[in-house]
Q: What sequence folds into this?
């Protein structure tokens, strides 16, 4: 086991073990499965139920209680034992039930002192397992504890609570700033697609850009022309043509007056259109071809970062080669297309830097010269609420192909699209830098918290008082009291430990 011992404890301190200063009440736990617990609480009002705790906190409620009072709960398994910045123990008070994923401790001294110590302790060498670490009762009993005099324990706890109160206020302010940044990011998108970010730009450019309806007509005509030319080329080389027949463009009905009434008012030069009229969409593949390996990335929902527009293909596992794609009858998404989630979580959108194949939880739009890919990506992100309102909900909300292609998008001239993207990204770049600063500050706050705890249990946080009763006498008194106490028998179901 890892040696946590400090060879130079302050005067009056003594090193002991956790089981020497705490009662371990694990034998009072009564395991109960989730189905039974749910059945037991049916029809019972909330005010008659009791908290039900697990490894890291409350996990539900139940109709009875096993404990009444203040106790320390320390994770037995499933707790973040090796994460220095996360708590492994917490204090509960009142009447409650505990499952068998948490050890139950009651200190013979200050519960708060033991709690703070456990939350800074390095559990490496005391926990076992790989994917789910476990702290056995035997290992827990061996945890070394540097024990100061009782009066100093109280001074340490008081100082910790004073310092942590200030630290918590700082962290709270940082978290609030993070939330404000999220709100601001969404506001930037809304301003962009209300035309507010390019108001001055339009005033300077004047009539140099085309009208939105005229531009939309040009897009539709361009799509028809491109298809006609591709089809002619395909048919002309039919005798030795190995290329796939081009997909005929699909067009969707115009946005109705009722739909218009629910959309934002646009600048006079803009017009709303369904995204399916602007781009060709691609139906995704249903399953990943596990037997294939190659050079075309297989893109799934976790590969798209909700905070970024360009997907990082270094995180994506390779899927198909171009030749294997034909065998699998998959549709490869060309570079610079727009890919969005259409199952579960909406508004997560990216532009792919490389050709890829997507699964059924994603939907892709292939853009062309009249639609800026990043403009379309940001516009889709801004329509998240529309997607949520039009999703079909079974076990998981999803958008079918028709709904994906019916998402309303503001249409403006390509030159203004590029200007809007520049305006959005200049503002979001500042948000990214602020977010990075906040994250660094939060990490520094957690590091400071651990540093304070380390100082506290090395006897360097508060001054020692020579008049304090030495910890050896406190420990001797605890041993004597425990020896004189008759062990409490394990209760039957429904009894309490007090």
A:
């Amino acid at each position: 086991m890892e040696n946590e011992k400090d060879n130079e404890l302050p005067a009056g301190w003594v090193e002991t073990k956790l089981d020497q200063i705490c009662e371990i009440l694990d034998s009072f736990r009564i395991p109960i499965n989730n189905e039974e617990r749910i059945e037991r609480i049916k029809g019972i009002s909330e005010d008659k139920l009791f908290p039900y705790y697990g490894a890291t906190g409350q996990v539900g409620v139940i109709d009875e209680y096993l404990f009444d009072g203040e106790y320390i709960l320390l994770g037995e398994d499933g707790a973040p034992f090796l994460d220095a910045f996360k708590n492994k123990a917490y204090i509960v008070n009142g009447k409650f039930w505990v499952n068998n994923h948490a050890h139950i401790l009651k200190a013979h001294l200050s519960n708060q002192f033991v709690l703070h110590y456990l939350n800074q302790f390095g559990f490496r060498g005391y926990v076992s397992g790989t994917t789910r670490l476990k702290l056995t009762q035997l290992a827990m009993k061996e945890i070394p504890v540097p024990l100061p005099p009782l009066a100093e324990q109280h001074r340490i706890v008081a100082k910790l609570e004073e310092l942590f109160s200030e630290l918590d206020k700082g962290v709270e302010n940082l978290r609030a700033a993070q939330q404000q940044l999220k709100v601001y990011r969404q506001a930037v998108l809304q301003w962009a697609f209300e035309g507010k970010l390019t108001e001055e730009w339009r005033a300077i450019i004047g009539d140099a850009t085309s009208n939105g309806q005229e531009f939309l007509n040009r897009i539709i005509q361009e799509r028809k022309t491109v298809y006609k030319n591709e089809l002619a080329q395909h048919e002309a080389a039919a005798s030795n043509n190995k290329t796939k027949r081009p997909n005929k463009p699909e067009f969707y009905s115009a946005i109705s007056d009722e739909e218009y009434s629910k959309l934002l008012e646009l600048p006079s030069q803009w017009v709303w259109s369904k995204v399916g009229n602007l781009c060709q969409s691609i139906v995704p593949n249903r399953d990943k071809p596990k037997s294939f390996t190659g050079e075309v990335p297989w893109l799934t929902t976790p590969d798209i970062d909700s905070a970024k527009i360009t997907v990082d293909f270094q995180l994506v596992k390779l899927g198909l080669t171009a030749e294997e794609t034909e065998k699998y009858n998959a549709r490869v998404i060309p570079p610079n297309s727009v890919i969005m989630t259409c199952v579960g979580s909406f508004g997560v959108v990216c532009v792919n830097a490389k050709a890829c194949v997507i699964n059924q939880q994603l939907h892709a739009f292939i853009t062309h010269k009249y639609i800026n890919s990043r403009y379309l990506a940001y516009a889709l992100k801004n329509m998240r609420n529309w997607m949520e309102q039009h999703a079909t909900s079974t076990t998981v909300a999803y958008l079918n192909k028709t709904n994906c292609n019916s998402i309303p998008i503001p249409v403006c001239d390509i030159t203004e699209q590029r200007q809007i993207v520049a305006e959005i990204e200049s503002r979001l770049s500042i948000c990214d830098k602020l977010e990075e600063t906040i994250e660094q500050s939060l990490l520094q706050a957690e590091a400071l918290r651990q540093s304070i705890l380390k100082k506290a249990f090395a006897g360097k946080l508060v001054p020692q008082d020579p008049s304090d009763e030495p910890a050896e006498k406190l420990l001797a008194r605890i041993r004597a009291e425990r020896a004189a106490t008759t062990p409490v028998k394990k209760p039957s179901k429904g009894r309490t430990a007090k």
Summary: The first strand starts at residue 14 and ends at 17. The chain has three domains: 14-147, 150-208+422-468, 210-412. The chain has a mean pLDDT of 87.
